[in-house]
Amino acid sequence: MKKILITIMIMALCFAFAVAIPGCAGNEPQVTGVNTEGAAVDVDWNVRYHYADLEKQLQDLHEAYPEYSELESIGKSYEDRDLWCMTITDESVSDKNKEEVAIFGNIHGNEGESASCAMYSAWFLLENATSGQVRKLLSKNIIYVIPVINPDGYEQSFIYKTRENLDADSAPDRDGDGIKFNDSYEDINGDGMVGTVYSLDMEKNKTTGTFGKESKDGNHNGKLADDPRNSGVDLNRNYDFMWGEDGVMDTEGPGPASESETVAVQDFITKHSDMKALATLHTGVQCTVYPWGYRPADESNEKEWAENQQMKDTAIAISQAMSKATKRNYYAKQGYYDIETYSDMADYAYGRYGIPAYTIEVYRGGYYKNYGLSSDYDENYDTYDVVDSNLIGGSIEENICSWNNELPKLKKADYTHEEAVAMFEAAGIDYTKLISREKSGAGANETVTKKPWGEDEGIRITYNSTQQMCGKAPEGQDEMVTGVMEGILTMINADRLH
Q1: Which residues does 218 contact at the CB level (< 8 Å), separation at least 6?
Q2: Domain limits, the chain
Q3: pLDDT tens-digit profile of 134-188?
Q4: CATH architecture of residue range(s) 43-171+230-407+474-498
Q5: Contact by Cβ (8 Å): 65, 106
């Protein structure tokens, strides 16, 4: 009798305090980025992993949770890396009435945080697949996670931040010698970073011009890193929808879907054209934007305007969820009013197939304070109306939405002439051919003065915060991936477009 009374009391307490007591109904314990205890696959969410490590993590997750996952390649990159897709659902439940949702990461190779957030979504859903909330989600949805669309650019970004893919066929021959990619970025002083190399007046402690970024001058023309491994193609301007319609041929590639990575994603979206929603993850700002990117929504088109307003509401909810979870500000806008873009993935998915597609920008580094404003977290921040200023990029409000971390300050390393000669010789550089370039003036009045490296000059190598952060995760990335997941869950749980 005594045991029964105790059991009843415990059940009553669980019912009364379900929100407060882990393990009671409605609040089952969850493995998260900031609390990884109990996870089958150990991942440190404050580390930037190489692509091979991500592939291993995906394989380990599939092997740990085979009843909830399938792992397949949807295509190949230019350098023959697989574009992996993890399909996540409760396979004990029929797929007949399930909704399909996709999460894409790292279309821009230098945006490593987007890959981490996409990887985390697969890890979180599988590690918590048997918990009530997530299991219910997986019984109703099929979720596709493609963590890295641009694996070549992602891996290159461990050396030097590379937004584009590495398709040599699409790349220009930047130095005009008939050989592409023959003078790319390389660390020549062994400090693990690629910096900018300057000629240095040792007596005045003043730079007198630049040689370029660190490289081994592979084309032997005295200009460092003037033909780097970089296609010049922005994969998020390469989709076969409104391609080239802006009239400016710059980063969209030689033709619509000219890149193998774009083709793989387009084929995947076409195969799953009835998707309820998709998210494409990026960095650079902290926001959620939605189609169109190339023009304003047409208020006179009743169907289009209704869908636009529904996507707006979902975008606001996504950003609010991320703000609340991370304690950082995120905003929401229609894409056109954030930055006008043509032939991007979101417009392709929505324009071709009517899929509501959300571009979720997960990270903007640094802290902002100016004009009486700051990026301090404000739980009352108006996610949408404050920033709906119809400014196309560059608004003050974008700065308000920052990660509030301290970025590395400019770093420099100085070498005497003799030390630099030894360094150049060890790297196989003919230092007698090095040409220093110094710019003066601006715009139409800009001039460039060229001169050989002087025998009495040293060199200075500088590293900005971006160069120093290659291959590194920003402070608090575990909080980021956890918070972004809240935004993704908000998208998954949103209604279909009416």
Answers
A1: 182, 183, 184, 227
A2: 43-171+230-407+474-498, 196-228+411-463
A3: 999 999 999 999 999 999 999 999 999 999 999 999 999 999 999 999 999 999 9
A4: 3-Layer(aba) Sandwich (3.40)
A5: no
